[in-house]
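Lecture notes, continued. The same structure-token format from the folding unit now serves as the input rather than the output. Read the line below as a description of shape only.
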């Protein structure tokens, strides 16, 4: 990335999202912030700008609001094809069973991903990523999980790594070979887990293609015992773990994740108090995915009151995937987290900044703080709660990555 000179942003209200400030959102009105070499070197009230920053290249933000660049900590952004046909069939009365018998569901995306070239996967994922970026996202997590054999899982993760080479985004990759059992292993989940925990994860680790390991712990997917085997292997390889847990039923996945000090447990609609306590003790982040809850017309919301009671950090993400959450707006997730899950606007914004960073194990971003990355998003709002209040549309009017403006609309 080009090293930037010193830049000053002024005429701006800063929402620092720092956990040291007692002001809501860590708000600094009439603020200013200075970046040098891609990192924040100063922030505060404009009246207090140190003299040595007076000659920095200055940008006026027109009295708008600035947050840390948004972090989408859970996506399945790389995949072939889409699932629009089955979406329509459902609305025309077909059942999930009929759709599955007709070859729909996750395995239809697996087939489409296996036949797609890396170039085709890259092109379609980049189009989706562009939508997230124009909505203020500067860091995104991307999972595998639609290849389900060694070559295609590697293909997916190599595409995600190439996307991370772009100057305007940071990508964290996650191996999700334990997403579903592929057709060639029908009826042999255990045999498939042998492959996932053996040759597949070894090949991924040999090429350093994954920053973390994930699994779908669910009665229709993999058991806690099978996930435990995978997490033991991840631990041997020094890879952190995260887990799709308690989405459709309570399998004890959150407590299992906590036993492995997982970065996060995700979905959590069926999470119980024992699981919350275990997550709190382990420092595991709760990643809430309102897009899947909404798309599946789920009726059981995650136990937000319990997560608050035990001070479990809550992150919010798109879960962008073609089946259960074809979502391309993290801002809409901020709104759904408040409207559907009853998070306060400040909790929802924390979910896509400081807590999103924590769910990825990243301490260098997610807050406006000296020493952290100069990743910023600018918003056309007059009150921070508008980011939760507004439904749809795009309030993001500028994006800065590593101190360099990468997207801006006239304002
Ligand atoms: O339907 C798909 O393609 C993915 C479904 C998605 N994967 C998962 O682990 N949980 C989900 O809701
Ligand atoms: Fe997911």
């Amino acid at each position: 990335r080009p090293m930037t000179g010193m830049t000053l942003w002024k005429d701006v209200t800063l929402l620092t999202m720092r956990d040291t400030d007692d002001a809501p959102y860590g708000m600094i009105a009439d603020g200013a912030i200075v970046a040098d070499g891609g990192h924040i070197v100063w922030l505060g009230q404009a009246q207090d700008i140190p003299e040595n920053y007076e000659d920095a290249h200055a940008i006026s933000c027109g009295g708008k609001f600035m947050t840390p660049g948004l972090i989408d900590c859970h996506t399945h952004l790389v995949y072939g094809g889409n699932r629009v046909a089955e979406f329509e069939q459902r609305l025309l009365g077909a059942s999930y069973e009929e759709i599955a018998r007709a070859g729909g569901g996750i395995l239809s995306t697996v087939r489409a991903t296996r036949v797609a070239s890396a170039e085709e996967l890259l092109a379609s994922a980049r189009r989706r990523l562009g939508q997230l970026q124009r909505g203020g996202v500067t860091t995104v997590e991307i999972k595998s999980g639609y290849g389900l054999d060694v070559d295609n899982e590697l293909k997916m993760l190599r595409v995600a790594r190439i996307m991370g080479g772009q100057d305007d985004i940071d990508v964290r990759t996650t191996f999700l070979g334990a997403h579903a059992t592929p057709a060639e292993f029908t009826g042999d989940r255990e045999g498939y887990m042998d492959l996932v925990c053996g040759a597949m994860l070894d090949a991924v680790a040999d090429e350093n293609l994954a920053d973390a390991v994930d699994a779908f712990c669910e009665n229709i997917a993999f058991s806690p015992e099978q996930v435990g085997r995978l997490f033991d292997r991840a631990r041997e390889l020094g890879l952190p773990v995260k887990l799709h847990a308690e989405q459709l039923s309570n399998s004890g996945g959150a407590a299992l994740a906590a036993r492995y000090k997982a970065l996060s447990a995700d979905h959590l609609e069926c999470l119980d108090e024992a699981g919350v306590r275990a997550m709190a003790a382990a420092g595991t982040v709760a990643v809430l995915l309102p897009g899947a809850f909404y798309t599946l017309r789920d009726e059981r919301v995650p136990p937000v009151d319990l997560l608050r009671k035990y001070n479990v950090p809550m992150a919010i993400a798109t879960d962008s995937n073609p089946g259960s959450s074809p979502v391309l707006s993290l801002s809409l997730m901020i709104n759904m987290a408040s409207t559907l899950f009853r998070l306060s606007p400040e909790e929802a914004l924390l979910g896509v900044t400081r807590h999103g960073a924590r769910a990825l194990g990243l301490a260098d971003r997610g807050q406006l703080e000296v020493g952290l990355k100069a990743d910023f998003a600018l918003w056309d709002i007059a009150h921070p709660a508008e980011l939760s209040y507004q439904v749809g549309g795009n309030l993001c009017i500028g994006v800065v990555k590593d101190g360099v403006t990468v997207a801006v609309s006239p304002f």
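Point for the exam: The CA atoms of residues 335 and 388 lie 4 Å apart.
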